[in-house]
Amino acid sequence: MKKLLVYLKDYKKESVCAPLFKMLEAMFELFVPFVMADIIDNGIGEANAGFVLRQGLLLVVLGLVGLACSITAQYFAAKAAVGFSTKLKHALFDHIQGLSFTEIDTLGTSTLITRMTSDVNQVQNGVNMVLRLFLRSPFIVFGAMIMAFLIDVKGALIFAVTIPVLAVVVFGIMIITMPMYKRVQAGLDAVLGATRENLTGARVIRAFHKEEEEIEGFENKSETLANLQLMVGRISALTNPVTYIIINVATVILLYTGAVRVNEAMISQGQVVALVNYMSQILVELIKLANLIIIITKALACANRIESIFEVESSMRWEELAADAPGGVAAKEKAAGGRGGAGRSEFAVEFDHVHLTYEGAGAESLCDIDMKVKRGETVGVIGGTGSGKSSLVHMIPRFYDATKGAVRIDGRDVKSYGIEELRQKIGVVLQKAVLFRGTIRENLLWGNGAATDEELWEALAAAQAKEFVENKEGGLDAPVAQEGRNFSGGQRQRLTIARALVAKPEILILDDSASALDYATDAALRKALKALDWETTVFIVSQRASSLMHADQIIVLEDGEAAGCGTHEELLAGCEVYQEIYYSQYPRT
């Protein structure tokens, strides 16, 4: 939790004012039993109506001033807590965005969502309640005991015994429940993960008629979470009845002792009433404190979970050298005359005996890949399912780092680039076509925020998407639903290709991104890519031999190894794996 408190530094004033005004409210509250004792002893006891009226007005003033202090304190507490959670969410989201695919794969999406939402909200609630009650409740408890000593020392001894007993109960329950709340949040992760998988894969579940199995699995996870919550709830629920019993026993003892001492004329009736009121105040505040302890326990458990994400560091280290800084690659290119300037490497991409093993995997996903790709070439990547096709192209933009060997772009190891410098060179269209809610224009501008409408239409035309976008009401400003659900699979793929083309990348990676296109559209797309008005090196990952036949070179993968590399004719003549793939799609005649 200490590491997270840095996000409260911009709310120092609010963090001080909130408990300060709460303590002022508590001070006015502590005066009330004194005034009541005065009314009973000097007003009612002596039948002085004027005195009762004046003291009654004083009680009203104390109440109004206390209310004003309470509202002010809650305003400052809410402002600090909401501001804190906002900054924390921004920092957490920024940190997650900085993690590599390896860490995100390891942590899991569901737990990251839980910590960004539920956990942060719990911490926000904890900060809010701490600022409001953490000082107020102990202040009233000990303040009431001190006031009791001022009234009657013997009666106040009951307070001195009661308060430590209550503290043992409250803090004992807190120590027991804190680890249990961590388990509850972990159970929430599991439920969220199951929910996300079921909603994402709803069509697949229905296609295989697995609704009953998934419902049963979800119910099991939900029941586990419910049992955890019930268990910790039962223990936490003991706080109120146990504190009530202790306080009521103390009140009975106090009344008995007070009655005896009144009978002996050692204290007045008003003073007994004041002592009982102070005991009641302690009861109320300890109940508040008990509930606060529960909230703090939850908040601390959630804060530890959030801290664990901040402690995860990206396995990738990026060079800090800016693209346009003196000595940077972009600066050198400008000095050499742009993209085609002298002094640049002959090869756009080089794989130098590259190996790749995913985190926690038992075997290598890629083994000893060695190839060179010249500028402007089109490279096809083909192989069976799980052969490592996506793994290979994902190493070019450095989504994953090579375990052994090196991947080079323009003759430089990708690890020597800054993240902006590297990613600006590369356009990537992943297997799953992902669009974001907004408009077609907003999605395309992800590629280049400064692109003109003319450039957007050119990219759409090259991606074979111009026709259906023109037919959409609003054209470029036509709405896009979340994940592009208001478009067909082929339309989504063409829009994501257009988004990549808007950036005019030096290297374009199409990771099986034309699988939903018919053969005619696929052929037109490949022809348009060849006719682009800038030099780009294209990597096409596909299961279709027809999509790769005209590539300058094709690499055939089998179980992570290069089974062959060459042109279509060369592979068809001498690579058994390629022959098997090709003839499964185009039977011999």
Describe the structure concisely.
The protein is an alpha/beta fold and 589 residues long.
Explain what the structure shows.
The chain has 589 residues and is α/β, with parallel strands linked by helices. The chain folds into 2 domains: 2-310, Up-down Bundle (ABC transporter transmembrane region fold), CATH 1.20.1560; 329-585, Rossmann fold (3-Layer(aba) Sandwich). 62% of the residues lie in helices and 11% in strands. The protein has 20 helices and 12 strands. The chain has helices at 12-44, 49-98, 101-107, 109-134, 136-151, 153-200, 202-207, 211-237, 239-263, 269-310, 329-336, 389-394, 419-425, 440-444, 453-462, 466-471, 489-502, 519-530, 568-574, 576-585; strands at 347-356, 366-374, 378-383, 404-409, 412-413, 426-429, 438-439, 479-480, 507-511, 537-541, 553-558, 561-566. A 6-stranded mixed sheet has the order 6-9-10-3-11-12. A 4-stranded antiparallel sheet has the order 2-1-4-5, with no helix packed on it. Strands 7-8 form a two-stranded antiparallel sheet. Helix 18 links the parallel strand 9 and strand 10. Helix 1 packs antiparallel against helix 2 (49-98) and helix 4 (109-134) packs antiparallel against helix 6 (153-200). The radius of gyration is 35 Å and the shape is elongated.
